[in-house]
Structures are given as structure tokens and as C-alpha cells.
Amino acid sequence: MSLFSQFQVGNVTFRNRIAISPICVYSAVDGVPDDWHLVHLGSRAIGGAGLVLTEATAVSPEGRITLGDTGLWNEQQQASWARIATFLRANGAVPGVQLAHAGRKASTDLPWQGGRPVPVNAGGWVPLAPSALPFDTGYTVPDALDEQGIAKVINDFSRAARRALEAGFSVIEIHAAHGYLFHEFLSPLSNRRDDAYGGSLENRARLLRAVVIAIRKQWPLPRPLMVRLSATDWTTGGWDIDECVQLVCWLKEDGVDMIDTSSGGNIANAKIPVASEYQVPFAARIRREVGIATGAVGLIVTGRQADDIIGRGDADIVLVAREALRDPYFPRRAAAELGVKFDAPGQYLRAW
Questions:
Q1: Which of 25, 93, 132, 339 is deepest in the core (most CB within 10 A)?
Q2: Residue 197 bears catalytic tag
Q3: Of these residues, 180, 197, 278, 329, which one is catalytic?
Q4: What is the pTM of this model?
Q5: How confident is the model at residue 344 (pLDDT cuts 50, 70, 90)?
């Protein structure tokens, strides 16, 4: 395997093994993506990525991180996404959508305006979570989801998956990482429930597995289904890689094709040993022990580095975020670095 070899998952083939991670740009109005999102995502397709994933796209208004988040719960949002998906595909990239619910980390301000929690009396809303535990000091205490609320979450993801299909996306990724709703259910530090959704690992995984099954009814095989997971909370007594491996065994049985492997985000003051490729071993372990495709993320900044990860068999694809913000043409730069011929769009041939 090499970075610029094709990769097939389900009924989709990526032209190479570089994917653009979901990158929230907090620039939507009422959840509707606009020209900003078209240009932002479209430039990464022209830049040569094999897969371009949308930012975390909320399945309900209450599932947004901020008021600037995109959504996929109504027809206007679906129509706007359809235009973007069409452009991505026309320029060689596979269009993917990340479906998300922010859980207790919902109702915050835009990052460049401080990112602090927005209370109800200032235009925010009460977040939802497995238990009534706020993310951090100053955050709104969330409402613990009851059975009706859990049923709504499952239905919201199912309906969003149907809209993703109708909008022309080729890949769905479920966001179950970074301290958002599903990660909150998985971690014993944020899930203190004593019902069928709390306690044992099987119970803590129940909601995510139910959502996977519900999505598969709207998004049938062989359409690719990914899940982004945090492999660890980086905190004693929290979610860890051993539990993550077991979860992925179940998710594979449920119809998941690939795990986008990240870490952290659920505990506000976790001490994370950030370093080059610090999360790659998680992707490698899951790939080897479960026998499922994985994506590696985190501080992957050069073509040689990305190619080495693929060549070692540590992951099937690499996902870039910050480096793609710095350089929308990162795949073309990586190809030049590796001496790989990479055709440019006809409009840009004079530069190559």
C-alpha cells in the first residue's frame, strides 16, 4: 500500500488515501451551508483529496455545538448540501458527511468569540447528555436523556442518513468522539446511568449501536459507513483503548466499514501527550486486532509521514485537518514530495 494507491471501501473507491477530516468552520445560518462551505470544501477536492468529509453536521437543532453549525434536519439544508456534494464528486473527491450530536458540549459561542457556553437567557439552549453532568466549570448542566429523548436521537440520525442519501453523499461518518453525545455515553466518567444505557460496556455502547443499525436501514450495504471514535479519555478510570477495541468488534458486526481513530475531548483537563503521530498506534491496534479498515489522524503534516503510516499498515487512510486548512492543496504537495505524478484539473495544467 502507498499513499497514492486507490482504496476501496464498500461500493466506493477513493482516488488516493488522503481524506479531509471534518473541520468545523461555524459559518452556517440556521444550519444551512452556503457559498463559504462550497468554496471551503470544494477547494480541498480540487486540491486532490480522495475523500472530503463535511464538518460535524448536526442531526437536530439541539445537537449543534454552536449556532453556526451546519445541519441536515430539513429540506433547505439537504438542497444546499446536494450542490456541494455534486461539486466534490465532479472534481474527483468522494463526498462524505459527518453526522453529529454535540451532547453536553452544545450551546457554546463561536470559537473566535470566546467559545464559552451560551446560557438560555442569551439565546442558547439546555444541552442533552447521558447524565446531568456538565462538561466543565461554567458549562450549563445538561438534561439527562430519558427514553423518549433517546428514541428521538435514534430517529434524528436515521432521518439525517436518508437526507444524506438523497443529497448525493457517498460516505456517512457518525461522530462518536471528542466528548460529544455518543462518546459521553461510552465513557464511565460522563455516563452515570443505572438503566440499560449505563454501567457495563455493553450498556454504554447500546445507543451508538442502535444508531448504527437505524442508519443502516436508510443507508444500506454496500454504502460505506464510518465511525469516528476517541480511543481514550487520557484519564484514569475513563474510556480506554481496550474498551474501544471491543466496541469496534461489535460495530463491525453491526455494519460499520471503517474507524476514524482519534482521542480525547471528553474530559476538560485531561493531560494529552501530544506529539507527532501520537494517535496512530490506536488506529494500528484496532486495524490489526479487529480486522477493520482504519483512518489515522493527528499531527500528520508531510507526504512522507503519511506515506509511511500507510506503508507500515498502521492505517488504510490518513485524515488531515489543520494541515488542510493551511494548505488546501496538501495532496498535490505530498505527491510532489513523493515523486508521484498527480494530474491537475485542466484549468490548472499550465502550473504543472
A1: 93
A2: no
A3: 180
A4: 0.98
A5: confident
